[in-house]
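In the design runs reported in the main text, the only information available to the sequence generator was the tokenized backbone. The following block is the verbatim input for one such run; it is reproduced so that readers can re-run the procedure and compare outputs position by position.
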């Protein structure tokens, strides 16, 4: 596809970390990059202009939620998701496979697809690879994801194997149905935490990995050591000429360990979810802004941050808003957490460019987590 190109611009000599530029119909994306999640065509509590000002290069929306409300036909009539929500930069839509997976008591998986009940009103629907591609084609995001099966942490080898087989068969059907050249289809690697299944799933996905590949089924409650083990298994098999995307990862430690192992793209609701709970991400670690110690603290959230929130409001004011249950508190903290994460990704990119990524990683762990980073394979 002429609309998509990925170019590696620099690489670490200390690890598998690398910088790149992914070109899409709605602009270029510098990697490694974090994608804020706008599940239902909105990053919670923020306008697209605020998300843009916070430094986001690309956002993620969810096909499952948009299928239920307002419906793909309405989005298509509006001119696609970009115009519908007034977002002018690149966008990715997830197939909704993970959301359907989370409806354990409300869905049934067959070889044909997934029969599920809406979490809103219980109406029964079916996702097949074919209608899911048609759905995402109508939504019009730059990057779309195959329909896959994500298994819970601790699943048996037999069940994980079945999910791998179905995910691969569904990928072939997705590729046949996918009809737009201005949308890149990413296959998804599954396999739980079994080495043989992860490698098998990756090999089955590679023939369809023209513009990128995703690793799913992680960040589902496993310890970070398990994530690292899976990434170390896959690292040498990932094709270097396309971007690598780990789905659902958003905490700084997970991001750093993924980058060290050659991952380029991330998404998560973490930044805005903890903001709604009163938590700020800072260069000294996380702060619970409800704590009484901030009652008369008239300093900025993070002295090293230049976001809108830090430039204009104090810790004391934000705590007051939280205690008073004012919605503005969640907006201010969301702006800050997204901006902070975008700056964190920028610092990662700069450390790779200057070839001191491992030093940056070590220093970040010491300051943010007050600990040493996990051991990196050599």
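Verbatim output:
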């Amino acid at each position: 596809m002429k609309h998509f190109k990925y170019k590696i611009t620099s690489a670490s000599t200390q690890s598998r970390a690398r910088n790149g530029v992914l070109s899409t119909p709605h602009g270029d994306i510098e990697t490694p990059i974090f994608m804020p999640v706008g599940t239902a065509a909105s990053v919670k509590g923020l306008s697209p202009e605020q998300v843009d000002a916070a430094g986001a290069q690309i956002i993620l929306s969810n096909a499952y939620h948009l299928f239920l409300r307002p419906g793909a036909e309405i989005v298509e009539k509006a001119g696609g998701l970009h115009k519908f929500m007034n977002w002018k930069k690149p966008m990715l839509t997830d197939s909704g496979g993970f959301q359907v997976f989370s409806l354990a008591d409300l869905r049934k998986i067959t070889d044909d697809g997934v029969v599920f009940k809406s979490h809103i009103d219980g109406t029964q629907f079916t996702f097949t690879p074919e209608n899911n591609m048609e759905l995402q084609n109508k939504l019009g995001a730059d990057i779309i994801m195959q329909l896959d099966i994500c298994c819970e942490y601790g699943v048996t080898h037999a069940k994980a194997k079945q999910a791998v087989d179905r995910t691969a068969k569904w990928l072939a059907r997705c590729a046949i149905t996918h009809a737009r050249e201005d949308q890149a289809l990413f296959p998804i690697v599954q396999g739980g935490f079994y080495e043989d299944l992860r490698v098998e799933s990756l090999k089955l996905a590679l023939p369809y990995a023209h513009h990128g590949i995703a690793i799913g089924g992680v960040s589902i409650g496993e310890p970070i050591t398990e994530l690292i083990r899976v990434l170390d298994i896959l690292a040498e098999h990932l094709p270097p000429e396309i971007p690598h995307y780990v789905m659902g990862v958003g905490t700084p430690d997970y991001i750093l360990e993924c980058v060290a192992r050659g991952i380029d793209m991330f998404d998560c609701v973490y930044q805005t979810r903890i903001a709604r709970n009163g938590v700020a991400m800072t260069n000294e670690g996380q702060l619970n802004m409800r704590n009484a110690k901030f009652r008369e603290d008239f300093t900025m959230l993070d002295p090293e941050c230049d976001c809108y929130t830090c430039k204009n409001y104090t810790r004391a004011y934000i705590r007051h808003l939280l205690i008073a249950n004012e919605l503005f508190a969640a907006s201010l903290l969301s702006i800050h957490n997204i901006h902070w994460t975008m700056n964190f990704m920028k610092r990662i990119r700069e450390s790779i460019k200057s070839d001191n990524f491992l030093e940056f990683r070590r220093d970040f762990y010491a300051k943010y987590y007050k600990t040493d980073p996990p051991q990196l394979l050599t």
